[in-house]
Design brief:
The protein is an alpha/beta fold. The radius of gyration is 19 Å and the shape is globular. The strands form 3 sheets. It has a 4-stranded antiparallel β-sheet, with helices on one face. The protein has a 4-stranded parallel β-sheet with strand order 4-5-6-7. The protein has helices at about 10-20, 45-50, 70, 110-115, 130-135, 145-160, 185-195, 200-205, 205-215, and strands spanning about 1-5, 5-10, 30-35, 35-40, 95, 120-125, 140-145, 165, 170-175, 180. It is built from 9 helices and 10 strands.
């Protein structure tokens, strides 16, 4: 138990046992991966994870229904034309069109993308709530210019084996000789690099908090 200026904080293990789910995330420094192109604008959260699949309360299993109505027909047969059913595309990076994650605020959209295996989503614009939900769940949303997004999509479609490098520490996204710097909230950057959730971050400041509390 950690006490800070009269407030009690349970440790992370107690918290996670109480909430019956794993909160920690993988550390993220540099990712090198091929990518999946999805050049569609205004992809909303209901397209990402339809509302009928929101009944579960834990984060696991949502990847099975990522883009469910785009991946499968009414008979649950894979739709061959959809990119996630195309074997020539794979990787941990999803490159999407402008205005990704618009619509309702459901956090399950970020859960489903992460659970499917993506670690990064690239677009030229994200809805604010989706962007924050992604960062809170270990998924890195990278905003690039419209020009660079077009270059990325063209490169991936022309050569699916093209490798993209995401350097979080230096905030650089690169494909081939072309690269662009991206912005990220510094607190969330620290959490991603260390694999922290908000409680982990607080506990990492245990020593500083105790010293502050004793000094005041």
């Amino acid at each position: 138990m950690l006490i800070v200026s009269g407030c009690a904080f349970i440790n992370s293990n107690q918290y996670r046992a109480t909430n019956n789910e794993k909160m920690g995330k993988d550390k993220f420094t540099t990712l090198k991966s091929t990518a999946v192109p999805l050049p569609v604008e205004n992809i909303d959260t209901d397209q990402i994870i339809p509302a009928r699949f929101l009944k579960a309360t834990t984060r696991e299993g949502f990847g099975d229904n990522l883009f469910r109505d785009w991946r499968y027909d009414s008979q649950n047969n894979p739709i061959k034309e959809f990119v996630l059913n195309n074997s020539k595309y794979s990787g941990k990076i999803l490159v999407a069109g402008k205005n990704f994650g618009c619509g309702s605020s459901r956090e399950h959209a970020a859960w489903s993308i992460y659970d499917f295996g993506f670690k990064v989503v690239v677009s030229s614009f994200f809805a604010d709530i989706f962007k924050n939900n992604a960062l809170n769940n270990g998924l890195l949303p990278i905003v690039v210019s419209d020009k660079f997004l077009k270059q990325l999509l063209n490169a991936i479609e022309e050569k699916p084996s093209s490798e993209i490098i995401v350097d979080l520490e230096n905030q650089i996204l690169q494909i081939g000789s072309v690269k662009e710097k991206f912005e990220i909230n510094q607190y969330k950057k620290t959490c991603l690099i260390n694999g922290y959730d908000d409680i982990d971050y607080l506990l990492s400041l245990n020593k500083e908090i105790r010293e502050f509390d004793l000094a005041h």
